[in-house]
């Protein structure tokens, strides 16, 4: 039973913090001057620092301060407010999409380094957006659109780069504790403790940062109604436990040479899946007379302590190792900036339960691992054709051990109509290689809803890489009092890898194109295949306006048309892609110490199920939620946050397995101490 006195205390403090103190503080508010508009500097779009207006991509940046303005236990909680970004998933496993392309097509980076747990978790993977504690994040850069010309495979949909705070020249630190209490006592509460500390060990030469967090969300009780067809109600959100302890040591060997060593240790337990990640990275950055260089040697081990078979304990281990180097050269002719680079990667997966070959064959049990090697060379050149016209051309040549060579070119043009208005447009091609599991004929797993009476799915060494061609054009306005942007985009993806074509019916199974046989117990076997052509197109819009010197409004909107347009069939909408979504945020600086915010989130209709022939469709209805949050700086050392999430208590229940819960009204309270 939950502690009712604790719940009542948090509710009371949250309501008082967002309402009562604001009224008292408003009486003492003073007129504040408009702050000078500063463009965030981004590095992910081209590999070098640029402001958003001139970066050769569609870029959004969320600062660490914004992330800490309300309780964020995972980046999914925050990035869904960006235009072009939607939250997807079923069975309450939430992941991010960029322009309608799900997590498998979005490259995750931590300080420019790849992180990918898809080999360790082949379905329902929602782990990679939460390895780094929010307290350590300086900013998150979101690049919407293909970036394979710089980053290679997996960047078809875009890139999310989590950039941690730099080691500081003076000692600084913070400790944050927060709790979220559900109004519905059957729903799971959550709580978190995080810290960050950084400073010099030797003046101007040696520095260190250390950060970590512990957070938990309790499992929901009976929050969903009984299905109309009968039977037990479905589960709500499962219990989640996350732990992280990371550190970095930096050495400034000279004014132009810097070396850093980072160690990362994280554990995430979601819905009875328990993952441990251990990472290490060695980086050298140099400034020379001819240009700048950066070399990164890094790797990680991700251990799935539960494995991929539900209800059983079958651990697997994924190893990733990379070396990545680049040199940036300024060239006087046409004011060029030339970037040259190379990368080598190695991936290995050991899974004694699902990588042992097909049951009933002579090779069953002979091996339990698979691996792959990749190398790449890339080049990108930015030309300043005129003072107001920038052209970026790039290409990456990837060599994949199993799929040979692939080119990923791109071209991007930025036209600065004035200091405040810019027009951008670009074209690019990208590719995505099959994962280790998809490409291994020795991999197999039970499916079709049962481990004993369903079907069986296997990898295939006959797969081809997925390829895409993308186009976008947009305009951006950046005035001191208002600004915004509008971008039109289209992605065409071919040879999309799919396993949705399967059935447990042994009589119907042989009619499927990807049917490959039967197990000894009679279950039909289906292999991954290249079948789909997918088109995602739409419009992204953002707007900000300073209504007064202390009241501002920000809004984002996404229109998305995402369809399967494979040959020989009528176009079908892709699942869990709302056609319309958006966010409106009002911010009020009540005083120098007090900020209030009200956020409205809209999620439009989306399809949750479409039958194989397209005759049966199931839609999830649109809904709107509101969040009220506040932040009060008690003094330079302490601040307190409070708020009410889902203010109108709009609840979304699960009556079918493919549906997703939306938590009802809940109250949060946070306290931060810093020095």
Write the layout of secondary structure elements.
Blueprint lengths: L3 H23 L14 E2 L7 E2 L6 E6 H4 L8 H4 L5 E4 L6 E4 L7 E5 L2 E2 L22 E8 L3 H4 L6 E7 L7 E11 L7 E13 L3 E12 L22 E13 L4 E14 L2 E15 L4 E13 L11 E16 L4 E15 L18 E18 L2 E12 L3 E13 L4 E12 L3 H4 L4 E4 L7 E4 L7 E13 L3 E17 L16 E4 L5 E4 L1 E18 L4 E14 L7 E2 L6 E10 L4 E10 L2 E5 L6 E4 L2 E11 L4 E8 L20 E9 L1
Parallel strand pairs: 6-9, 24-28
Antiparallel strand pairs: 1-2, 3-8, 4-5, 6-7, 8-9, 10-11, 10-38, 11-12, 12-13, 13-14, 14-15, 15-16, 16-17, 17-18, 18-19, 19-20, 20-21, 21-22, 22-25, 23-24, 25-26, 26-29, 27-28, 29-30, 30-31, 30-32, 32-33, 33-36, 34-35, 36-37, 37-38
Q: Into how many domains do the coordinates divide?
A: 1
Distance between the termini: 38 Å
CATH topology, anyone?
Maltoporin, Chain A
Supply the number of helical segments: 5
Return the CATH architecture.
Beta Barrel
Rg, rounded, reads: 25 Å
Fraction of residues in helices? under 10%
Shape summary? globular
Please outline the major beta sheet.
Answer: 22 strands, antiparallel, barrel
Strand content: over 45%
The CATH class is: Mainly Beta
State the fourth-level CATH superfamily: TonB-dependent receptor, beta-barrel domain
Low-pLDDT windows of residues: 20-37
Structural class: mainly beta
Per DSSP E runs of 2 or more residues, the count of β-strands stands at 38
Which whole number gives the mean pLDDT? 86
Would you give an account of this structure?
The chain has one domain (4-220, 242-304, 320-383, 412-674): TonB-dependent receptor, beta-barrel domain (Maltoporin, Chain A). The longest helix has 23 residues, at 4-26. It contains 5 helices and 38 strands. β14 (257-270) and β15 form a beta hairpin. It starts with a helix and ends with a strand. The strands form 6 sheets. The protein has a 22-stranded antiparallel barrel. 6% of the residues lie in helices and 52% in strands. The chain has 675 residues and is mostly beta strands.
């Amino acid at each position: 039973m939950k502690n009712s006195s604790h719940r009542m205390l948090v509710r009371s403090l949250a309501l008082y913090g967002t309402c009562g103190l604001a009224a008292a503080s408003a009486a003492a508010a003073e007129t504040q001057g408009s702050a000078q508009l500063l463009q965030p500097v981004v590095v992910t779009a081209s590999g070098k620092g640029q402001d958003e207006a001139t970066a050769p991509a569609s870029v959004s940046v969320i600062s660490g301060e914004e992330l800490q303005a309300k309780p964020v236990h995972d980046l999914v909680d925050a990035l869904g407010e960006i235009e072009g970004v939607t939250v997807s998933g079923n069975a309450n496993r939430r992941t991010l999409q960029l322009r309608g392309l799900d997590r498998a097509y979005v490259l995750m980076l931590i300080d420019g380094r790849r992180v990918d747990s898809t080999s360790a978790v082949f379905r329902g993977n929602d782990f990679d957006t939460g390895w780094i504690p929010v307290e350590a994040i300086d900013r998150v850069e979101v690049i919407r659109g293909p970036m394979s010309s710089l980053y290679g495979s997996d960047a078809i949909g875009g890139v999310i780069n989590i950039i941690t705070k730099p080691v500081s020249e003076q000692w600084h630190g913070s400790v944050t504790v927060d709790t979220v209490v559900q109004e519905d006592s059957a729903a799971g509460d959550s709580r978190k403790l995080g810290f960050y500390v950084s400073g010099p060990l030797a003046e101007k030469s040696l520095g260190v940062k250390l950060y970590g967090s512990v957070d938990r969300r309790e499992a929901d009780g009976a929050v969903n109604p009984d299905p109309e067809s009968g039977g037990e109600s479905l589960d709500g959100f499962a219990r989640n436990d996350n732990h992280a302890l990371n550190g970095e040591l930096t050495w400034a060997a000279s004014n132009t040479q810097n070396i850093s060593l980072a160690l990362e240790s994280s554990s995430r337990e979601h819905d009875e899946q328990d993952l441990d990640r251990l990472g290490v990275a060695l980086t050298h950055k140099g400034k020379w007379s001819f240009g700048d260089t950066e070399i990164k040697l890094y790797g990680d081990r991700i251990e799935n302590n539960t494995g991929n078979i539900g209800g059983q304990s079958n651990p697997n281990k994924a190893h990733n190792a990379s070396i990545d180097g680049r040199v940036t050269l300024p060239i006087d002719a046409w004011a060029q900036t030339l970037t040259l680079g190379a990368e080598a990667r190695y991936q290995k997966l050991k899974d004694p339960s699902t990588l042992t070959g097909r049951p009933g064959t002579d090779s069953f049990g002979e091996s339990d691992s698979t691996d792959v090697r990749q190398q790449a060379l890339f080049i990108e050149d930015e030309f300043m054709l005129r003072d107001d016209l920038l052209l970026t051309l790039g290409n990456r040549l990837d060599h994949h051990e199993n799929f040979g060579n692939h080119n990923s070119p791109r071209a991007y043009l930025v036209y600065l109509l004035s200091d405040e208005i810019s027009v951008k447009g670009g074209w690019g091609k990208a590719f995505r290689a099959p994962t280790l599991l998809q490409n291994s004929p020795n991999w197999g797993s039970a499916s079709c809803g049962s481990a004993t009476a369903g079907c069986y799915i296997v990898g295939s060494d006959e797969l081809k890489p997925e390829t895409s061609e993308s186009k976008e054009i947009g305009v951006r306005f950046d005035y001191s009092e208002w600004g915004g942007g509008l971008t039109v985009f289209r992605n065409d993806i071919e040879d999309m890898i799919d396993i949705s074509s399967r059935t447990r019916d042994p009589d119907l199974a042989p009619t499927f194109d990807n049917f490959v046989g039967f197990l000894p117990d009679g279950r039909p076997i289906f292999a991954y295949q290249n079948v789909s052509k997918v088109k995602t197109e739409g419009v992204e819009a953002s707007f900000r306006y300073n209504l007064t010197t202390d009241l501002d409004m920000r809004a984002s909107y996404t229109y998305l048309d995402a369809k399967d347009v494979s040959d020989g069939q009528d176009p079908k909408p892709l699942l869990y892609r709302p056609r319309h979504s958006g966010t409106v945020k009002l911010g009020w600086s009540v005083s120098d110490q007090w900020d209030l915010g009200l956020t409205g989130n809209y999620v439009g209709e989306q399809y949750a199920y479409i039958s194989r022939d397209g005759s049966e469709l199931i839609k999830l209805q649109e809904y709107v939620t509101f969040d009220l949050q506040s932040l009060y700086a008690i003094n330079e050392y302490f601040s307190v946050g409070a708020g009410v999430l889902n203010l109108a208590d709009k609840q979304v229940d699960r009556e079918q397995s493919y549906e997703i819960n939306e938590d009802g009204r809940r109250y949060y309270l946070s306290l931060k101490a810093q020095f």
